[in-house]
Amino acid sequence: xxxxxxxxxxxxxxxxxxxxxxxxxxxxxxxxxxxxxxxxxxxxxxxxxxxxxxxxxxxxxxxxxxxxxxxxxxxxxxxxxxxxxxxxxxxxxxxxxxxxxxxxxxxxxxxxxxxxxxxxxxxxxxxxxxxxxxxxxxxxxxxxxxxxxxxxxxxxxxxxxxxxxxxxxxxxxxxxxxxxxxxxxxxxxxxxxxxxxxxxxxxxxxxxxxxxxxxxxxxxxxxxxxxxxxxxxxxxxxxxxxxxxxxxxxxxxxxxxxxxxxxxxxxxxxxxxxxxxxxxxxxxxxxxxxxxxxxxxxxxxxxxxxxxxxxxxxxxxxxxx
Amino acid sequence: xxxxxxxxxxxxxxxxxxxxxxxxxxxxxxxxxxxxxxxxxxxxxxxxxxxxxxxxxxxxxxxxxxxxxxxxxxxxxxxxxxxxxxxxxxxxxxxxxxxxxxxxxxxxxxxxxxxxxxxxxxxxxxxxxxxxxxxxxxxxxxxxxxxxxxxxxxxxxxxxxxxxxxxxxxxxxxxxxxxxxxxxxxxxxxxxxxxxxxxxxxxxxxxxxxxxxxxxxxxxxxxxxxxxxxxxxxxxxxxxxxxxxxxxxxxxxxxxxxxxxxxxxxxxxxxxxxxxxxxxxxxxxxxxxxxxxxxxxxxxxxxxxxxxxxxxxxxxxxxxxxxxxxxxxxxxxxxxxxxxxxxxxxxxxxxxxxxxxxxxxxxxxxxxxxxxxxx
Lengths: 321, 375
Known about the structure:
Strand content of chain A: 25-35%
Strand order of the largest sheet of chain A: 1-5-4-2-3
Shape of chain A: globular
Structural class of chain B: alpha/beta
Strand order of the largest sheet of chain B: 2-1-3-6
Strand content of chain B: 15-25%
Distance between the termini of chain B: 21 Å
Oligomer: heterodimer
Number of strands of chain B: 10
Helix content of chain A: 10-25%
Low-confidence stretches of chain A: 1-15, 19-27, 125-132, 159-163
Number of helices of chain A: 7
């Protein structure tokens, strides 16, 4: 067994430097520190940290003045995170020392600002003694609307997975398996996939003010009565309607790499108030612990890789009480 | 129909076997070149011949100039091929038609097969949630167990019954009976569905000759009539339907077929229903009206749907034991009913069968075709 050391990001601005007392506005922080699950990466951890922070501060991501993001990974994770938060149109910049200086030099306030650092290191070789594997996402909010630091509870630290050779190997194996070929059968092409991201990332559903029918994925006009529909995210909590554990041979081929590394996975259909049902993979739980009627909450996770890129979407985990 | 199973024949050879038998079954004789038009159900055989499959099929029986087309509605392709051919003959567009189906999948790799079997659900939203064909039916089975108390044993009883019937079918993929214990001991594919709750990957072809009334009376003294045809669609994704324990497409299609035939389920002596998974037969029993919703499990366990029961279901062995070559199944169901109504089903014969039913479903219930046949 190795000793675990706290991960130190090797970029210009350390978390402790973000939002020092004396900078404008007030502070709020949330942190997640743990060894990632197979379906997590810098994008998903950032979404979870920033999402929880914005919820607690009761600030809509679409009302932010700016987002500053930093990570060792240059993978476009920050724009994925912004889209998943509903902040695609908000100014997004990489947090460099220059940007940090500029923001702290005085001048007009950009309003509420989200500062996010997210790192999810993956083992690249079997020699792992010097590489600490703690993943970390730090989200902070500054600006006139940000509540006092004392008003916000820090995000709960998750118990890390045991750090063993097997854990490292599984992570490496999963990373290495991302397929680049276009499959010869049913698949969702890139352009079609991209057109569904709002619905997929944020569970945007449509509801009809006329006949009250609800649809997910959203449809406009209403398929029942033809009236214009309204778009809104589904509630953050639903109930298990049904589920199944998918064994080897029962999965679409895109999920073969996942099954080779992690074995069986569970798929759940979650029913929301209004009757809309959404299918999704289960995160952080297995079929044996699920019951029909149990409360579940959506989480933003990696789904599978295709044509050289990871695809993200909504999975469900048992709701925290 | 051709033999069903892991077959060495090529697609052309399989189809030729089926058509040859169909022509030989015409009492006063019929040659292939008397066929005027053809409808062939086929999902696509893994992409082997997606375009112009109809021509490949008629070419295989040396009638390449006959107008033909592929009909596709996933596993209901064959049922819809039958329906479309029936409509053409009934409308007078032709008086001798060929309706059938074809599928060959065992020459593909397992990965390729699973891709191909996964094309019949909602690709964008069911597949990307990690679901393929058995996964969706498994969700329906679990919900059915929750809503109605259906048990694992009742699911397994469907497989036991159908394998017992398949043992008497020389063309079936599986010709050995199996025990309840064997089914229950098999591994989970997608819980609660186990290996023996799921139909297998099958190659095979089926063919039927349809004739106008006037032509039929000149070809045989023992015609089997299509009394009614019904079909319906429903939401592509199972979770978007009002209920995940009822296939509304079955309810609508069967109502339409019975209405046209001026018959009810009580008039039906024998039925071939769509048991791609054991839960699918239980749903079919309920949705066709054999029992109240939720009682399909107890009905099966009671033995009423056995070969010698009051209302035999799937005497051929069903999709479970006979096999399920996706595009060929719908017409193969009608083939079995044809034999039954002519008294030619041998050891599988349901005594005195006069009215039969075929029930063919596409995907998890997105499409359904039901036919009522009689003598």
